[in-house]
Amino acid sequence: MTQPGAAALAVDDLSVEFDLPGGRLVAVENVSYRLEPGRTLGVVGESGSGKSIGALAVLGLLPPAAAITRGRVLWRGRDLVGLEAAALRAIRGRHLSMVFQDPMGALNPAMTVGAQVAESLLLHQPVSARAARDGAVAWLGRVGLPEPGRQAGFYPHELSGGMRQRVTIAVALACRPEILIADEPTTALDVTVQARILDLLLDLQDELGLALQFISHNLAVVSEIADAIAVMYAGTIVELGPAEHLLEDPRHPYTRALLAAVPRPGTRTPPRAIPGAPPAGTARPAGCLYEARCPLAIAACRARRPPLDRFGDGRRVACIRAAEVAA
Amino acid sequence: MSALLAIDGLVQEFRGRGGSVRAVDGVSLALAPGDVLALVGESGCGKTTVARAIVGLLRPSAGRIRLDGEDLSAQRTRAASTRRLQMVFQDPFGSLDPRLSARTIIGEPLAIHRLGDRSARRARVGALAEAVGLDPAQLGRRPRAFSGGQRQRIAIARALALDPAILILDEPLSALDVSIQAQVLQLLLELRRARGLTYLFISHDLAVVEAIATRVAVMYAGRIVEEAPRDRLFDAPRHPYTRLLLAAIPRLGAGKRRRADTAAEPDGALPGWTGCAFAPRCPRAEPRCRHETPALAPVRDAPDQRAACHFRDERADGAAA
Fold it and tell me: Which residues 65-124 of A have a C-beta within 8 angstroms of B?
């Protein structure tokens, strides 16, 4: 699944900016990655790193103040950037779908959950209302509602948080899309429920051959589901590669710091905080964006932005000292 | 044991449409000075209700809460005790008044208790801000101008204003990114060391609890089902629910997850159920578990570890301890 041309979706040199009263704010800068069928790309970073805005840009769901300023989003040879709203809507949901952190916000509180899954089917497929209803019940059962026939008649508030997130997954996958972007889908849930939702996503990925983009601030959660990982910092990807290499031998100093910030089971010691804060979006230095916080920074780091260069073992790292970063 | 804070047989009932619900059902806990007692469990288990009862936001249906031996339900002691017992809430966005400056928010407890004159209070707020890692020059700004981690620092500074002995921390890290969590966690540990604080740390995140707690109490359906020193709880859990929680922690370095290694999700209390509340989800349950509620009692090989399970003397592999 790694040969060129196998991508379900290719994001190429994407930049997103906000036009705000205080000036232009760079949210995403020259980001490139590919999603492959049956595989999961985990995207990690802190709030404000651009991981969610980048996903919204790919989906054509940017807020009005934000715009794509360069780059392409390639799907089946077509560039989704600049596509008309109607054409994009026809693709979204049918081929390219999404799940967000807050299932309550994603569901209509005044509509039964069965009707919401049925609506997703009716929107994109030539099926009868009755077939859509039956299909909805089947999907609710598939995502793990214990009594789908009865619970299809429930309103969102009558279900637990975990069950609601299962419903949004049913809504997202009802039309069997090829690509799913899940943005912090388990962050609001208890750990036991989180574990079961991760299992469900992995099962559905196998079943549908889904190309999955899984976004989270928590590297530990991402490590449980991702085949490849992209680490984002201040709107850029600073490291991208196979999950096991990146986790065992991180080469960007920020990836290392992020790994050290996650509490490790068994160590019984507090995790290490990353000192400082990312640069403000309106005042971006010309050099490496992590330089001000980086223990390895040298004068050359300030000269220009390090490109995301190949670093062997299928990995890319945006650091001029990547070879010197010890595991 | 000379407990700083002792909770004894706490019961908290709420009246709802279908009769009353017992959110907390006989919880007893004791905090010694310097303890970081973590109270863990899933949403709805009653852990936040325990915290709200301790700080006086709820009037307990039954049970006693004593601070330094003084009963907090007596109105007279309650007023004096609020200074020694402060709470930090989960949501740094919702718990700070958006109309007030950070300086006013942090200084509010001092103003309410009429401590010092204006300039003394101003100096005290500046010192508190520095203690929690906030820039005193920015205290004129309102909460919206601060990041989530900084807002939680503001909430901690406010909680420290009256120099309390105990902080009740209700999910103080849950709304924050992992990297910011690590910063606030370090701050809490520093403050505990520097000020001799005692914490009741309420959390659903066992990875964080393992890093900060000295003791851990696990709550399920309104009751404590296991309590032990931190190492003992993580190394040799004796309640199947504790094992379930531990198995669900996302782990770095374990590779992609093995599926179906966790039991069912909570589905609420069953009507007419008389036995162990966890039995419907429990891989170890036997018929007696459906009828006999196990008491919280010490395990045979470790008197400081208590578990509410009929099989508390079995290890995870089923062998006798």
Answer: none
